[in-house]
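Lab meeting prep.
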Amino acid sequence: MSLVLAVAFVFGILATFYSYYNTANRLASGQVEGAWSGTYWASAIAFFFGAAAIYAAISYKREVIVYREKSLEEANQDAAAGEQGSANQISLDNFRKALTEADAATTKLQAGLNNICKELEVGQGAAYLAAIENGVRKVVLSSGYALNIGESTVISYEYGEGLVGQAASEGKALYIDDVPEGYIKIISGLGTASPRYLLIAPMLRGKEVAGVIELATFTPLSQEQRKFVEDAASELSQSLNNNE
């Protein structure tokens, strides 16, 4: 469009010069009346096409800049999504490798929990396996990561009891982003502190809940990290089933 207007502007300039030349001849021959009218019209038309060509060129430049910025933004978003997808895939690959290297079901459970906790740098982690005691469905603590309890301590929750029991009963993950002070204590050589975030994910085997993974951390977990835990918990459940 701007090219067409530019060509029209050039023709308008040529027409203006021709009109000036023709006007000079008419004045020289004594034809004064109406001698300048053609020149005025030619100049006006040339000015119009020139202004239109400049406006079209500026508008096109703006469109190119906006399109380029939009293209760069979309490219950056695609790159970020690709990097995030790759990072999540690497995490699952490392998790699967840890399960493969463990032989027995108990060591697989501990290896899987350790990998999840180290991958996300959480403060504490616990893995519960589903069991039935006297006809009552429960999840029993079977593996721990940085727990401040003795190995002989037995912890279990009935389905629907507490947050762990609720996750087992509903078969859905729970994410708490404002854990009450003192709800969980993490003890280290530097003292005692309370995590602020809690993620509880069921270990699903189809629609069946085979166990529960519980993680406590001082920093929030992103949606991608929570998705990783849910996927890892399901794969861990399937891996334990293959070892039974």
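Slide two material, second protein:
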Amino acid sequence: MALRVDQPCCSFADGRAYFYSRTKFLARKTNLFLAKKAKAVFTAYPDMEKFFAGAKTFFLGNPIRENIITDRVDTALAKEKLGLDKDKLTILSVGGHWVQKTLNDAWSRYLPQLAEKDIQLIWQTGRPLPPKGGKIPTNGAVSSSDIPPLGDRGLVAEFISDMPLAYSAADVIVSRAGAIAISELSVAQKPILLVPFPFAAEDHQTQNALTLVNKNAAKMVKDVEMKEKFWTTLMEICESETLRKEMCENLGYFAKPNATKEIVDEILKVMNI
């Protein structure tokens, strides 16, 4: 919950018990203040008890959509369902609307190299930034004339409705580093290249990403490094099956597919219900 909402709610709890969930890695002063009176604190990342001294802290992950877990299928089958070649390495690129320009520019630049490497791309473009002073566009992320045709080398979509299928089809995933995105990606357990959104509050996406990078569960390239490091880092992942397997195994540490149930169970336990 955003601090602008949870601070007044918890402040007016008037002695009633409450539990606190921190979805990101960073903890602000308000987080620390509210955690002091919480019955327990639930975190999405490990080693966060250092921020919440004196509070019962549980690393249980972020609740995610159930279908991310239940609707996954075999990678080869997922590729075939999407009309892709099941034998070709496939990259999935995802991110929120209006924060995709960096990734969109990169894919436009490197499409010829992807073709040379015979790599398929599932490219979620997101919606474009609205014109200065203008309204947010309601359709069309990127004009089709702006995207070189992928032909049988991949798919382009403004929005992907069946994310479990897209995750399943991917051999490598490129993504921003939002808290819920990382929780879903950890459960998907596919090699990840994270490109944190640089304008997120307190640069928290970089901190989210570094938590995985430090466990060799992901690679990271910052926005300002895209031209110099994006392609080489991406190919480091794509061209090493050993590295991909290692990253997948390490992601298991962060995967919390039962986060919702475990959080509810802990609340009931603490409240003796």
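Talking points for slide two:
The two ends are 24 Å apart (CA to CA).
Strands lie at 20-22, 41-43, 57-59, 90-94, 120-124, 154-157, 172-175, 192-194, 219-220.
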